[in-house]
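Record 1 of the preview.
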Amino acid sequence: MAVDNRTIKELSASGLDSAVPLCIQYTGAAASKTDEFELKSSLLHHSPKYHGLSMEDSNKHLKEFEVVCSSMTPINVDGNILKMKAFPFSLMDKAKDWLYELAPGTVTSWERSHSFEEEN
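->
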């Protein structure tokens, strides 16, 4: 019998090509903006969290999320792409499961990602 010498991290990541949900496809950045940037931990830390519970208001979550992102978008960064990259970090539990179950390529712009409020 062969011994599997992979680490726990390697085993837990098997089958995942990246941490980005397959349902999100990024478009090109707006003119004079870049889509190459690093998400800062302060942005992720200040993002509101949405769990997908019946007592939560998805519209309020989106408004709060947009306020945080708009106040922390670096100069020359496409704000819509920043929101699309940061949004999965604002979802927890049932809401995150929903995001990862969407068909590949479902979300192609920030405006399209708002559809979760109708489905949840």
